[in-house]
Design brief:
single chain; Methanol Dehydrogenase, Chain A; Rossmann fold; globular
Length: 938
């Protein structure tokens, strides 16, 4: 112990400790591109039903995943390399997961030109949580477990040898054959193994094409193409309570689809096609089996289907909760082509018509779904298999009420409004109700904008009509409409686009459809759906706190009257947390809150144990175990302990006033060793409004389209992310009004190097950057990803991923022009950088890929060729075959390196890379990347 009489020694030791700590801090590493490979992400976290075990996978860069199982205090129970997609069995006795072949081994085999079918297959891991033993089953193609009971697992094998010799292997295996010479494969099926997890006993059923467990009963159904005279082709049901196997349908040659049990396993449905000819219109038949029956019975075929329809092989089969109705799909016969025509005799022409509902490009993308389109129908199993068609050509989309038990179904169509949605961006619908007992149709709602739902008990149609910004409930029994929020603000208060404001949403219904619970900006309100009387449940507006319900039970149909868990978010501080709310007396208490972003908790099915994450710019979202009191918290994972070795950063809110007098908020990221007396280069990066994400963690990664904040902060950059407040008709000017004063306010603080400020953004951000650099020279360098320099030509383009016209975007949504080019020609010109491109003095890097399905890549070309024509320093990156942003890891890495080299050169005086000096000639593409830095002086 130090003596109080020796202050000199105390000062010396204190100084020494400070020196040591500073030395340690000074030795922190700076993030480099190679370091991105050592950062882990947490995937597929899950909690067992008893809450005793937590499972997740750690994925590190391109390396193999590591699966980990831990107990509630963080103790390691089990781990395994190259493993993922973990799940617990229903009663928490086993953990199941997929073991992938070593990635490096797969790469080497591909390099050796090994065929895809001969590459190593996945292995199924079965870990016994009681005995701590692991069993591996090689060459597993797929597996299934029961949803609401346990003890068994069924899996398909690529190879029958894997049944005899269970092993984890990388060696390709030969395919087994029938005695007839037919091969194991998609057409003839694979070998199904049913394994009893409690005693490892198993049965093998060969050449299985489909299989399914009942949700609640111990039943397994499967379809086999047959082995020999002992096991015939057909449909089988296995009762696992008495091990009785029954063949309920047999056919030597048949094609099956939509095999599915009712919830209790007492009913089974499937579609079968037994026609062995090559007729183009397949004669599908619907079959139903009821427990106790020897064989399945045909209930519908082409002879008794509604006129002009047939049984669909693509419409999902399901049963009502009470199992009185079998639901299936009816479809129109396919359009048959003349198979006798030769290729040179076929005319391939696209005929686009001005008034057809869907643009031809949309039709092209939806051909497959159009071919598979089916219309919901019901068979009344207790009423002589009476058929009722629910969906129809007039109302193709159907929703069932009360888990299929309801007498009424809600049907709708968007067809009358699809043409105008091309420019409105809003697909309105007409709604009707169908009596599932009689088939009677009653029209109820016309041209409703916003999706309408049916309440859980099936008593109401309800939703939000965006045209009049009103929530409503329509009684299906009384046929009465009640406007619930007419004239009140239950819509987006901050709407800044020329579109109808969206709603904040609904959290659900109370028991038996007694009340509808709706959100406004901050609070939760309870409405009587018949009278419209309302009650405010929370008091968030007073302190700018948003309350939102957490659905802890995924099967919850009604919001119960017990204690709720709510997530909270304060719009001013950006703090979040969890709140306990007593819905009986409308009181509550904050359980946990702080300067973090909290995830939605995952709750164990059998008790109140939960796992969740909390994160900030500094704190990685590691897994935390607790219960619903959130008093005791155990951190279970430590995914990235190496972070403490690196110079990181901090995030804070900054405030300023826009040029048009609006108070604004943004984020400022500073290096960890920030010194306010120094001047730092700064990159401005933005997209709409981002400040609500202040406490989101930014792990180092090779991003698709934007700078990585922790990476650039570690390398000595400031990052400024300003929120943008838009004025309709002037999106470019709005960005200018918000960004420039934000930048100058930071310059005034004295720590920004005003001569070394860059700007970077993608898509909508890329457009705004293209606009900004035509109006200001404050930026020394800019990267503009997938930009739109010409709103006039872009207005008439196509969003190729959806086939939609881009018109609605400019008239009503993000581009915010508010009308057509012929209504507001000056707005289109003023907001288009192309008309002021000669004013640009900022060096530009542009990325725009040739498979972009969001923004036509000719916009990027238009931008670059104009810059090139004017001799403006500019570079264009096109990652061949990539969409709106690079998806392949090698391309993402390449983009991040070039982006950093670009900004380092202009903002930090680093050496210029070869690609910026001379490009990468086409003859060298894919060979020389030009990433090397030029010698000093060049």
């Amino acid at each position: 112990m130090l003596s109080k009489k020796n202050p000199t020694m105390k000062i010396f030791l204190t100084t020494l400790l400070i020196f040591i700590s500073l030395s340690i801090f000074a030795q922190k590493k700076i993030l480099d591109h190679k370091d991105l490979e050592i950062w882990n992400t947490i995937k597929n976290k899950t909690i067992s039903s008893n809450g005793e075990f937590i499972m997740y996978s750690l994925e590190k860069g391109e390396k193999d995943s590591w699966l980990k199982i831990k107990n509630g205090t963080g103790g390691l129970v089990f781990e395994h390399e190259r493993s993922e997609k973990g799940q617990f069995t229903y009663h928490s006795k086993y953990a199941l997961f997929t073991l992938k072949p070593w990635k490096d081994s797969i790469k080497e085999l591909k390099r050796s030109k090994v065929k895809k079918d001969d590459l190593p297959k996945d292995t199924l891991g079965i870990y016994n949580l009681n005995t701590k033993s692991l069993h591996k089953l090689g060459n597993v193609k797929s597996y299934k477990t029961p949803e609401k009971w346990s003890g068994f697992i069924a899996y398909l094998l690529e190879d029958i040898k894997s049944v005899k010799k269970e092993e984890d292997t990388l060696k390709p295996k030969k395919k087994d054959k029938k005695k007839s010479g037919q091969k194991v494969g998609k057409e003839n099926g694979y070998h199904l193994v049913l394994r009893d997890l409690n005693n490892t006993k198993q049965d093998t059923f060969k050449f299985v094409t489909d299989y399914v467990f009942a949700e609640e009963a111990k039943r397994l159904a499967f379809i086999t193409s047959g082995v020999d005279s002992t096991v015939k082709a057909g449909v089988y049901v296995l009762n696992l309570e008495n091990n009785n196997l029954a063949q309920i349908f047999d056919a030597e040659k048949a094609t099956y689809s939509q095999l599915n049990f009712s919830e209790t396993g007492k009913n089974l449905g499937f579609v079968v096609d037994t026609d062995t000819t090559k007729v183009l219109v397949r004669p599908n038949q619907l079959f139903h089996w009821k427990e106790g029956a020897i064989k399945a019975q045909k209930v519908l075929d082409e002879n008794n289907a509604p006129n002009g329809f047939r049984v669909s092989s693509d419409g999902k089969i399901s049963f009502s909760k009470d199992e009185s109705k079998l639901y299936f799909g009816l479809s129109k016969p396919p359009i048959v082509k003349d198979t006798t025509l030769l290729d040179e005799e076929i005319v391939n022409v696209e005929v686009w018509t001005y008034d057809e509902p869907r643009l031809y490009t949309v039709q092209e993308l939806q051909v497959k779904s159009d071919v598979k389109k089916s219309y919901l129908a019901a068979i009344h199993l207790n009423n002589s298999n009476k058929l009722i068609q629910i969906g129809s050509l007039a109302y193709p989309d159907a929703r069932l009420g009360n888990e299929g038990n309801s007498e009424l179904a809600l049907v709708s169509t968007s067809l009358p409004y699809e043409l105008e949605s091309q420019w409105t961006g809003n697909r309105a619908r007409d709604y009707a109700i169908v009596n599932t007992n009689t088939g009677e149709i009653t029209k109820i709602l016309t041209k409703m904008s916003g999706r309408i739902n049916i309440s859980p008990a099936g008593k109401y149609a309800y939703g939000y009509n965006s045209v009049d910004s009103t929530w409503f409930a329509y009684s299906l029994i009384k046929k009465k409409m009640t406007n619930l929020t007419k004239g009140e603000v239950f819509y987006n208060e901050l709407n800044d686009s020329p579109n109808n404001p969206y709603a904040y949403g609904s959290l659900g219904w109370s028991e038996n459809d007694a009340s509808l619970l709706i959100y406004n900006r901050f609070d939760i309100w309870k409405f009587n759906p018949d009278t419209g009387l309302k009650t405010k449940l929370t008091n968030g507006r007073e302190n700018k706190t948003v309350y939102r319900y957490v659905k802890l039970d995924k099967e919850e149909r009604f919001v119960n009257d017990k204690k709720w868990i709510l997530k909270t978010f304060n719009e001013v501080t950006k703090n979040s947390g969890y709140y306990e709310f007593n819905s009986k007396n409308n009181t509550g208490k904050q359980l946990i809150t702080g300067p973090f972003s909290f995830s939605t908790p995952l709750k164990a099915r059998e008790n109140n144990k939960v796992i969740y994450t909390k994160e900030s710019f500094i704190d990685f979202p590691d897994i935390i175990a607790s219960d619903l009191s959130f008093k005791k918290q155990n951190q279970l994972s430590n995914a990235n302990p190496q972070q403490k070795e690196y110079n990181w950063g901090t995030a804070e809110l900054v405030n300023w006033t826009s040029l048009d007098g609006v108070e604004l908020t943004g984020m400022l990221i500073k290096p960890e060793n920030f010194d306010p007396s120094k001047k730092y280069p700064m990159i401005v990066n933005f997209y709409e409004k981002s400040s609500d994400g202040l406490f989101r963690h930014k792990a180092p990664s090779a991003g698709r389209s934007t700078i990585n904040y922790s990476f650039y902060a570690s390398r000595g950059y400031l990052i400024f992310n300003p929120d943008i407040n838009y004025r309709i008709g002037y999106p470019g000017e709005s960005a200018l009004n918000c960004v420039l004063p934000g930048v100058t306010s930071l310059i005034d603080k004295g720590f920004v190097d005003k001569d070394n400020i860059g700007v970077q953004g993608h898509s909508w951000g890329g457009y705004q950057i293209a606009y900004l650099v035509t109006k200001t020279d404050i930026f020394k360098a800019a990267e503009s990803g997938a930009p739109v320099p010409n709103m006039i030509s872009a207005y008439g383009g196509i969003r190729w991923w959806t086939g939609l016209s881009r018109q609605f975007q400019y008239e009503h949504t993000q581009s915010r022009i508010g009308g057509t080019p012929w209504e507001y020609p000056q707005r289109y010109i003023e907001n288009s950088p192309i008309f002021n491109i000669d004013k640009i003095n900022t060096p530009l890097l542009i990325m725009h890929n040739d498979a972009d399905g969001h923004v036509p890549w000719y916009q990027g070309i238009e931008f670059f060729t104009a810059l090139r024509r004017l001799g403006k320093p500019s570079w264009f990156l096109n990652y061949n075959g990539e969409p709106h942003w690079p998806q392949k890891i090698q391309n993402r890495k390449d983009f991040n390196i070039r982006l950093a080299q670009f900004f380092d050169f202009y903002l930090k005086g680093a050496q210029k890379p070869v690609w910026m000096k001379r490009g990468v000639p086409a003859i060298e593409k894919g060979i020389n990347q030009g990433l090397e830095l030029l010698p000093v002086g060049e």
